[in-house]
Amino acid sequence: MRKIIFATGNKNKAKEIHEILKDLDFEIQTMKEAGIDIDIVEDGKTFSENSMIKAKSVYDALPENLKGRVYVMADDSGLSIDYLNGEPGIYSARYMGEDTSYDVKNKNLIERLEGVEKADRSARFVCAISCIFPDGTKKSVEGTIEGYIGWEMAGENGFGYDPIFYVDEYGCSTAQMTPEQKNAISHRGKALRAMREELKKNENISS
Ligand code: ITT
Question: 75 CB contacts (<8 Å, ≥6 apart)?
Fold first, then answer.
Protein backbone atom coordinates (compact mmCIF):
# COMPACT_ATOMS: atom_id res chain seq x y z
CA MET A 1 0.00 0.00 0.00
CA ARG A 2 1.20 3.52 -0.78
CA LYS A 3 2.16 5.60 2.20
CA ILE A 4 1.97 9.30 3.09
CA ILE A 5 4.23 10.68 5.82
CA PHE A 6 2.61 13.84 7.15
CA ALA A 7 5.03 16.49 8.40
CA THR A 8 2.97 17.73 11.32
CA GLY A 9 3.22 17.67 15.07
CA ASN A 10 -0.29 19.09 15.51
CA LYS A 11 -2.63 16.28 16.63
CA ASN A 12 -5.79 18.22 15.75
CA LYS A 13 -4.60 18.77 12.20
CA ALA A 14 -3.60 15.11 11.94
CA LYS A 15 -7.12 14.05 12.98
CA GLU A 16 -8.72 16.23 10.29
CA ILE A 17 -6.20 15.02 7.69
CA HIS A 18 -7.02 11.36 8.43
CA GLU A 19 -10.73 12.08 8.19
CA ILE A 20 -10.51 14.07 4.93
CA LEU A 21 -8.22 11.57 3.17
CA LYS A 22 -9.87 8.42 4.53
CA ASP A 23 -11.31 7.33 1.18
CA LEU A 24 -7.86 7.46 -0.43
CA ASP A 25 -6.44 3.98 -0.09
CA PHE A 26 -3.13 5.17 1.38
CA GLU A 27 -1.59 4.55 4.77
CA ILE A 28 -1.07 7.88 6.54
CA GLN A 29 1.53 8.31 9.27
CA THR A 30 2.64 11.43 11.06
CA MET A 31 6.39 12.13 11.07
CA LYS A 32 6.52 11.06 14.73
CA GLU A 33 4.79 7.77 13.93
CA ALA A 34 7.38 7.25 11.19
CA GLY A 35 10.17 7.81 13.74
CA ILE A 36 11.23 11.19 12.34
CA ASP A 37 11.96 13.63 15.13
CA ILE A 38 13.30 16.91 13.79
CA ASP A 39 12.86 20.60 14.55
CA ILE A 40 11.69 22.54 11.53
CA VAL A 41 12.42 26.25 11.14
CA GLU A 42 9.43 27.82 9.40
CA ASP A 43 11.13 30.87 7.91
CA GLY A 44 9.11 31.23 4.71
CA LYS A 45 7.10 34.35 3.86
CA THR A 46 3.90 32.60 2.76
CA PHE A 47 1.78 29.63 3.83
CA SER A 48 2.84 27.87 0.67
CA GLU A 49 6.56 28.42 1.25
CA ASN A 50 6.28 27.23 4.84
CA SER A 51 4.37 24.08 3.90
CA MET A 52 7.08 23.21 1.36
CA ILE A 53 9.81 23.90 3.95
CA LYS A 54 8.12 21.39 6.30
CA ALA A 55 7.70 18.77 3.55
CA LYS A 56 11.30 19.20 2.35
CA SER A 57 12.71 18.96 5.89
CA VAL A 58 10.97 15.63 6.46
CA TYR A 59 11.76 14.37 2.94
CA ASP A 60 15.48 15.06 3.59
CA ALA A 61 15.25 13.25 6.94
CA LEU A 62 13.58 10.08 5.59
CA PRO A 63 15.27 6.87 6.70
CA GLU A 64 16.92 4.90 3.86
CA ASN A 65 14.14 2.28 3.75
CA LEU A 66 11.50 4.95 2.99
CA LYS A 67 13.44 7.08 0.48
CA GLY A 68 11.81 7.01 -2.96
CA ARG A 69 8.87 4.99 -1.63
CA VAL A 70 6.58 7.43 0.19
CA TYR A 71 4.75 10.71 -0.34
CA VAL A 72 5.73 13.44 2.13
CA MET A 73 3.01 15.98 2.79
CA ALA A 74 2.77 19.09 4.99
CA ASP A 75 0.15 21.66 6.01
CA ASP A 76 0.81 25.28 6.82
CA SER A 77 -2.28 27.17 7.79
CA GLY A 78 -3.63 30.10 9.72
CA LEU A 79 -6.19 32.80 10.28
CA SER A 80 -6.01 36.08 8.41
CA ILE A 81 -8.11 39.00 9.74
CA ASP A 82 -8.62 41.88 7.30
CA TYR A 83 -9.09 44.60 9.96
CA LEU A 84 -5.70 43.57 11.44
CA ASN A 85 -3.96 43.69 8.05
CA GLY A 86 -3.89 39.91 7.78
CA GLU A 87 -2.75 39.11 11.33
CA PRO A 88 -2.04 36.62 12.77
CA GLY A 89 -1.52 35.06 9.30
CA ILE A 90 1.56 32.87 8.93
CA TYR A 91 2.31 33.55 12.61
CA SER A 92 -1.00 32.02 13.77
CA ALA A 93 0.63 29.28 15.86
CA ARG A 94 3.21 31.69 17.30
CA TYR A 95 0.79 34.59 17.95
CA MET A 96 1.26 35.81 21.58
CA GLY A 97 3.73 32.94 22.05
CA GLU A 98 3.48 29.27 21.11
CA ASP A 99 2.63 28.25 24.70
CA THR A 100 -0.17 30.78 25.21
CA SER A 101 -3.58 29.11 25.37
CA TYR A 102 -6.10 29.61 22.58
CA ASP A 103 -8.53 30.88 25.15
CA VAL A 104 -6.20 33.83 25.74
CA LYS A 105 -5.33 34.30 22.05
CA ASN A 106 -8.99 34.22 21.00
CA LYS A 107 -10.04 36.67 23.72
CA ASN A 108 -7.21 38.98 22.69
CA LEU A 109 -8.30 39.01 19.03
CA ILE A 110 -11.91 39.74 20.02
CA GLU A 111 -10.65 42.64 22.15
CA ARG A 112 -8.61 44.03 19.28
CA LEU A 113 -11.81 44.16 17.23
CA GLU A 114 -13.83 45.95 19.90
CA GLY A 115 -16.33 48.38 18.37
CA VAL A 116 -15.70 47.08 14.85
CA GLU A 117 -18.84 46.56 12.73
CA LYS A 118 -19.65 43.19 11.18
CA ALA A 119 -18.75 44.42 7.68
CA ASP A 120 -15.18 45.07 8.83
CA ARG A 121 -14.72 41.81 10.77
CA SER A 122 -14.07 39.68 7.69
CA ALA A 123 -11.44 36.94 7.98
CA ARG A 124 -10.36 33.73 6.32
CA PHE A 125 -8.65 30.51 7.21
CA VAL A 126 -5.96 29.60 4.69
CA CYS A 127 -4.36 26.19 4.27
CA ALA A 128 -1.41 25.40 2.02
CA ILE A 129 -0.65 21.74 1.43
CA SER A 130 2.67 20.78 -0.12
CA CYS A 131 3.66 17.31 -1.21
CA ILE A 132 6.87 15.73 -2.41
CA PHE A 133 6.14 12.62 -4.46
CA PRO A 134 8.28 9.46 -4.21
CA ASP A 135 10.18 10.54 -7.37
CA GLY A 136 10.89 14.01 -5.93
CA THR A 137 8.17 15.90 -7.83
CA LYS A 138 6.90 18.87 -5.78
CA LYS A 139 3.30 20.14 -5.69
CA SER A 140 1.56 22.82 -3.62
CA VAL A 141 -2.13 23.72 -3.42
CA GLU A 142 -4.11 26.14 -1.31
CA GLY A 143 -7.62 26.25 0.13
CA THR A 144 -9.48 29.06 1.91
CA ILE A 145 -12.74 29.56 3.77
CA GLU A 146 -14.29 33.00 4.22
CA GLY A 147 -15.90 34.08 7.46
CA TYR A 148 -15.83 36.75 10.16
CA ILE A 149 -14.62 37.18 13.72
CA GLY A 150 -17.51 36.90 16.16
CA TRP A 151 -18.11 38.91 19.34
CA GLU A 152 -17.70 35.90 21.57
CA MET A 153 -16.18 32.43 21.57
CA ALA A 154 -18.57 29.59 20.85
CA GLY A 155 -18.29 25.83 20.38
CA GLU A 156 -16.16 23.01 21.67
CA ASN A 157 -15.20 21.24 18.44
CA GLY A 158 -12.19 21.83 16.23
CA PHE A 159 -9.13 23.60 17.64
CA GLY A 160 -7.13 26.83 17.60
CA TYR A 161 -9.13 29.82 16.36
CA ASP A 162 -12.29 27.83 15.52
CA PRO A 163 -14.35 29.30 18.45
CA ILE A 164 -14.09 32.88 17.08
CA PHE A 165 -14.36 32.12 13.34
CA TYR A 166 -17.97 32.33 12.16
CA VAL A 167 -19.38 31.32 8.79
CA ASP A 168 -22.42 33.24 7.54
CA GLU A 169 -24.12 30.37 5.67
CA TYR A 170 -24.11 28.29 8.86
CA GLY A 171 -24.70 31.12 11.36
CA CYS A 172 -22.21 29.59 13.78
CA SER A 173 -18.50 29.20 14.46
CA THR A 174 -16.44 26.38 12.97
CA ALA A 175 -16.08 25.09 16.56
CA GLN A 176 -19.87 24.61 16.63
CA MET A 177 -19.84 22.47 13.49
CA THR A 178 -19.50 18.71 13.47
CA PRO A 179 -16.13 17.50 12.14
CA GLU A 180 -17.91 16.39 8.94
CA GLN A 181 -19.49 19.84 8.41
CA LYS A 182 -16.20 21.63 9.00
CA ASN A 183 -14.16 19.30 6.78
CA ALA A 184 -16.71 19.67 3.95
CA ILE A 185 -16.20 23.44 3.71
CA SER A 186 -12.88 24.15 5.39
CA HIS A 187 -9.61 25.51 4.02
CA ARG A 188 -7.96 22.17 4.93
CA GLY A 189 -10.74 20.12 3.34
CA LYS A 190 -10.49 22.08 0.09
CA ALA A 191 -6.69 21.95 -0.11
CA LEU A 192 -6.45 18.25 0.79
CA ARG A 193 -9.13 17.26 -1.73
CA ALA A 194 -7.19 19.15 -4.44
CA MET A 195 -3.97 17.36 -3.41
CA ARG A 196 -5.79 14.02 -3.30
CA GLU A 197 -6.57 14.48 -7.02
CA GLU A 198 -2.85 15.07 -7.75
CA LEU A 199 -1.94 11.84 -5.96
CA LYS A 200 -4.62 9.89 -7.81
CA LYS A 201 -3.34 11.25 -11.14
CA ASN A 202 0.20 10.23 -10.21
CA GLU A 203 -0.95 6.73 -9.24
CA ASN A 204 -3.31 6.40 -12.24
CA ILE A 205 -6.29 5.93 -9.94
CA SER A 206 -9.46 6.86 -11.84
CA SER A 207 -12.31 6.66 -9.31
P1 ITT B 1 2.65 21.82 12.34
O2 ITT B 1 3.52 22.95 11.80
O3 ITT B 1 3.44 20.83 13.12
O4 ITT B 1 1.80 21.22 11.29
P5 ITT B 1 1.34 23.98 13.80
O6 ITT B 1 0.18 24.00 14.75
O7 ITT B 1 2.61 24.66 14.23
O8 ITT B 1 1.62 22.44 13.42
P9 ITT B 1 1.00 25.90 11.66
O10 ITT B 1 2.38 26.45 11.77
O11 ITT B 1 0.48 25.61 10.28
O12 ITT B 1 0.85 24.52 12.43
O13 ITT B 1 0.02 26.86 12.42
C14 ITT B 1 -1.34 26.80 12.18
C15 ITT B 1 -2.10 27.52 13.27
O16 ITT B 1 -3.20 28.18 12.63
C17 ITT B 1 -2.72 26.50 14.21
O18 ITT B 1 -1.90 26.25 15.30
C19 ITT B 1 -4.03 27.17 14.55
O20 ITT B 1 -3.82 28.09 15.56
C21 ITT B 1 -4.40 27.93 13.30
N22 ITT B 1 -5.29 27.10 12.48
C23 ITT B 1 -4.99 26.45 11.32
N24 ITT B 1 -6.03 25.73 10.88
C25 ITT B 1 -7.02 25.91 11.78
C26 ITT B 1 -8.31 25.41 11.89
O27 ITT B 1 -8.80 24.54 11.01
N28 ITT B 1 -9.05 25.80 12.93
C29 ITT B 1 -8.55 26.64 13.85
N30 ITT B 1 -7.33 27.16 13.85
C31 ITT B 1 -6.55 26.80 12.80
Answer: 6, 8, 13, 17, 51, 54, 127, 128, 129, 188, 191
Going along the chain from its start, the domains and CATH numbers come out as 2-203 (3.90.950.10)
Which residues lie across from 68 on neighbouring strands?
none
Which residue's CA is minimally distant from atom 16 of ligand 1?
Answer: 78
Ligand 1 atom with least separation from CA of 78: 16
Q: What is the pLDDT of residue 1?
A: 81
Q: Which residues in the chain show pLDDT less than 70? A: none
Closest Cα to atom 18 of ligand 1: 93
Tell me what pLDDT residue 51 has.
98
* pTM summary value: 0.97
Please state at what angle helix 187-202 crosses helix 11-20, rounded to 10 degrees.
50
Position in ligand 1 atom list of the atom nearest CA 188: 27
- Count Cβ atoms below 10 Å from residue 125 Cβ, excluding itself: 24
